Amino acid sequence: MKIKRLRIRTFRGIEEVDQDIPDAGVLVTGKSGGGKTSVLNALHAGLQGRDVGADAIRIGWDRAEILIDMDNASVRRAISKRGTTLKVTDSEGQTVSKPQTWLSDLFGASIDPIALLEAAPKERRKMILEAVPMTVTVETLRRFAPDLPDDTDVEGHAVEVLERVRGVYYDKRTVANAAAKAAVEESSRAMDDALTAREASDPGDAMPVEEAERALSEFQAQRTTLEAQAAEAVRANQRTTQTRTRIASLRQQAELERNLLVQRELPAVPWHQERVGKADATVKRLREELAQAESAQRTALLELQAAEALELSQLAILERATAFGTQADELEGALAQAAAPPVDPASLANAEAVVRQWTGIRDRALAWAKFIRAEQHVNTCASNVASTSAVAATLDGIVHALTQDAPGYLFTQSDGIEGLAFEGDEVFLDKIRLSGLGGRDRLRFAINIAKRANAKAKILIVDGLERIDDTQLEEFVAECTRDSWQLLATRVSANEVIFESLQPESSE
């Protein structure tokens, strides 16, 4: 498709333009502020409905009009203070029923390759996505991620949805790879443990651990019994020594108590009683001697009390001495019964040797059992490595498909830019990264994106070619007009505004 003629009346800084457009296009040159950009804005207004508000009407006028004749249709855009109208007539003179829809389908996205290069990565990505609106469904994404949940958020631009989904599977793959790596490391450790356990075990005389533990427990119990008997014999001897010391102490105390008994003979109580009787008789007979008798009576009573107290004291001492002797006799008898028989040292040594022997048997049984468990763990780890690696491989395939295959498929299905992909804000075209290219290749890259975005119309609209180095300008124009493309561009110059015809660049 080609634009053949452009007519602009009272739009922005333009009072009137009526210009034939050659097949290769035109380069509008002139001083800054002369209306060059307004020509391109008029093209955007007429074809895409941009900048069609009342403020687009030239000051002092109440209406603007843009007429674009193409080789397959004519477009008429009128702008008034009440709004805008659009009429499209096809090559047979028939009015198109939905003119803006027809134009949008024909022209697709309009991307300025120079603005694309100069934009920051985030802004560049935004420009491309706005120029190529796309949607995607869960069903479409399942071509690349079969297990994608039904409730996956697919709101927004298809590329952004794709990146969100890819991010989810990328994170899953990271976790799966870590699990697979951990499984491999665990498997390696299990192999090492199994080898170590095999070297430390001897299956020749290994018996079941339970049997070895049972036998060892019996011999340990026998040894413990002998040790307990030996310890009890020692304690019994200690108790015997302590008891003998106690017996000697008791006998010594008994002897001391007996020594306290009065050695001299004293009158017995009955004799004193007789004296008291005689004294009473004498008192009765000899009242005249009452004073003397009463005095004798008091003396006799005192002596009687002293004798009784002495007798009681002697009896108590005798009882204590008897009790001490009885305790000593009882302890002597108990001592004979409590003596513990000594343990034969040979029996104890033999028991110790048997325990050592069965401890070794038990240890060998444990070592062999440990080797068996290690082998089982190796098999478990191998299975775990296989399963985790399979999960990681599946997720790696999904991430690869979402990264490499899905973008191209989505752009193809949505009439987007074929071969375009993103990684974060980085732009790729046919798997080539923009940031990795030199200046000349970057220009070609940007032109390629712009062309693919508007492949039906095959028209590029570029503002500000003065931003391109003079040494690259001719090559830029040639690249833009190659393969029958049409270029409408502006460039600042010292002269008044003029339209320079461009010559087509043929394909080689």
Topology, please?
Layout: E1 3-11, E2 14-20, E3 25-30, H1 36-48, E4 63-70, E5 73-80, E6 83-90, H2 99-107, H3 113-118, H4 121-131, H5 138-141, H6 158-199, H7 209-259, H8 269-285, H9 290-338, H10 345-413, E7 420-423, E8 426-429, E9 432-433, H11 439-453, E10 459-462, H12 470-481, E11 486-492, E12 498-501
Could you provide a short overview of the structure?
The chain has 508 residues and is of the alpha+beta class. It is 59% helix and 14% strand.
Task: Report on the architecture of this protein.
α7 packs antiparallel against α9 (290-338) and α11 (439-453) runs parallel beside α12. The two termini are 21 Å apart. The model has no long low-confidence stretch (mean pLDDT 85). The protein has 508 residues and is α+β, with helices and mostly antiparallel strands. Among the domains are: 1-108 and 456-508, Rossmann fold (3-Layer(aba) Sandwich); 209-346. It is built from twelve helices and twelve strands. The radius of gyration is 61 Å and the shape is elongated.
CATH architecture of the domain at 1-108 and 456-508: 3-Layer(aba) Sandwich
> What is the CATH first-level class name of the domain at 1-108 and 456-508?
Alpha Beta
- Number of DSSP-assigned strands: 12
The global form is elongated
Strands side by side in the biggest sheet: 2-1-4-5-6
